[in-house]
């Protein structure tokens, strides 16, 4: 730990820690639009600038590390610079709500009382459409922070997205799938990680396109565990308060064991929950050969009687148990214990192994 000065007060932090994190731990929130704790320091949006004693100009807190004896000021001209930088981003922010996702730029502007002094005449960017049915992208909502590009490169270790039109063609700059192809034709797995880190909602769920502003904030979050494999990723089911239907799935970076990352199934494959063909009660086959609804006590009793009859007539090794990779390790452990101790059979297998 080293000591440094923050707004006239002596504080301490691990040497080398990013200022934006050290300041937050000491109760000083510095906004940022390009920083993400999963990603390498970038310092692109400059909204998090603070004054560093001895530095010729303000420095970005998200790309500056703590050193012993440094003196930091978050007051003074840093606040006015933050407001000006926010206004500069707003002048070409033409669509603040393509899909109802939270917009950190709009929230920051409201907090700072910043408004776009004008709209750039060439702010309109070439629209982008993709044949994938899960994610959309609106260049007019994008602030080119490159969070999404860096996420695909640094977290997913692929080249799914890139920046085009930089440099002399800066007014034409936008995010595109690599080589301007469809998401489906790149290394992209449609995991939605780029969507989750986008600060302005420029990347959004296509099935929520046109949703009202603040739609996500109005949903009720119910923490659950994804059942598509045995990893046990923690998810939030975002439920509409009135209909109690799942509108979308998100995950928080603080969750173990997935740290907010999901696969395409975990994030997008939730429509089965409300499918009319989904079973909501047990079925048993009657004497007519057809399946009929029943209660759980009856279904479990008939299943137990059937297993006992087969074991009595043909021996315990005539019974086999097939488990699922969509269960947790703990549940699969209980299944094999049930097979070996209650059913007295060693014929236990998993569908994932075939």
Structure summarized in a few sentences:
By secondary structure, this protein is α+β, with helices and mostly antiparallel strands.
Polypeptide structure, described:
- The chain is of the alpha+beta class.
- It has helices at 19-25, 77-90, 104-112, 147-154, 193-197, 264-268, 296-314, 329-342; strands spanning 2-6, 9-13, 49-52, 59-60, 71-73, 135-137, 161-164, 174-177, 203-205, 220-225, 234-239, 246-250, 283-285, 291-293, 321-323, 348-350.
- The protein has three domains: 2-88, Ubiquitin-like (UB roll) (Roll), CATH 3.10.20; 91-104 and 113-274, Alpha-Beta Plaits (2-Layer Sandwich); 315-354, no CATH class.
- Strands 2-1-5-3-4 form a five-stranded mixed beta sheet, with helices on both faces. Strands 10-11-12 form a three-stranded antiparallel beta sheet. A two-stranded antiparallel sheet has the order 6-9.
- Helix 2 (77-90) packs across helix 3 (104-112).
- The longest helix is centred in the C-terminal third of the chain and has 19 residues, at 296-314.
The profile of the biggest β sheet is: 5 strands, mixed
Q: How helical, in percent, are the residues?
A: 10-25%
Quickly give the structural class.
alpha+beta
Instruction: Quote the CATH topology of the largest domain.
Output: Alpha-Beta Plaits
Label the overall shape.
elongated
At CATH level 2, the architecture of the largest domain is 2-Layer Sandwich
CATH top level label of the largest domain? Alpha Beta
| Order of secondary-structure elements | EEHEEEHHEHEEHEEEEHEEHEHE
Uncertain ranges: none
Query: What oligomeric assembly is this protein in?
Result: single chain
Count helical runs: 8
Q: Work out the strand percent.
A: 15-25%
Number of strands: 16
Tell me, rounded to a whole number, the average pLDDT: 92
């Amino acid at each position: 730990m080293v000591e440094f000065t923050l707004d006239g007060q002596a504080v301490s932090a691990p040497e080398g820690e990013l200022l934006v994190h050290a300041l937050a731990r000491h109760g000083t929130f510095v906004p940022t639009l390009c920083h993400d704790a999963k990603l390498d320091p970038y310092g692109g949006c400059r909204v998090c600038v603070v004054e560093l004693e001895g530095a010729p100009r303000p420095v970005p807190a998200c790309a500056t590390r703590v050193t012993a004896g440094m003196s930091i000021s978050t007051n003074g001209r840093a606040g006015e610079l933050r407001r000006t930088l926010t206004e500069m981003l707003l002048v070409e922010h033409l669509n603040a709500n393509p899909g109802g996702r939270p917009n950190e730029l709009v929230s920051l502007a409201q907090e700072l009382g910043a408004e776009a002094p004008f709209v750039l005449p060439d702010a309109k960017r070439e629209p982008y459409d993709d044949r994938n049915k899960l994610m959309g992208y609106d260049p007019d909502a994008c602030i080119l922070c490159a969070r999404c590009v860096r996420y695909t490169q640094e977290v997913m270790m692929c080249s799914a997205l890139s920046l085009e039109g930089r440099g002399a063609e800066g007014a034409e700059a936008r995010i595109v799938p690599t080589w301007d192809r469809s998401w489906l034709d790149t290394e992209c797995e449609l995991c939605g990680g780029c969507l989750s880190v986008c600060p302005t909602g420029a990347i959004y769920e296509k099935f929520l396109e046109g949703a009202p502003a603040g739609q996500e904030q109005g949903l009720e979050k119910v923490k659950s565990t994804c059942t598509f494999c045995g990893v046990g990723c923690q998810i939030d089911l975002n439920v509409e308060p009135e209909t109690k239907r799942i509108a979308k799935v998100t995950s928080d970076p603080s969750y173990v064991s997935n740290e907010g990352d999901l696969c395409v199934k975990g994030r997008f494959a939730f429509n089965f929950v409300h499918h009319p063909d989904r079973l909501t009660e047990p079925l048993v086959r009657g004497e007519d050969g057809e399946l009929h609804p029943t209660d759980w006590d009856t279904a479990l009793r008939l299943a137990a009687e059937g297993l006992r009859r087969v074991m009595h007539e043909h021996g315990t090794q005539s019974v086999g148990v097939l488990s699922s990779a969509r269960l947790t390790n703990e549940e699969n452990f209980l299944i094999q214990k049930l097979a070996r101790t209650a059913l007295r059979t060693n014929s236990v297998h998993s569908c994932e192994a075939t």
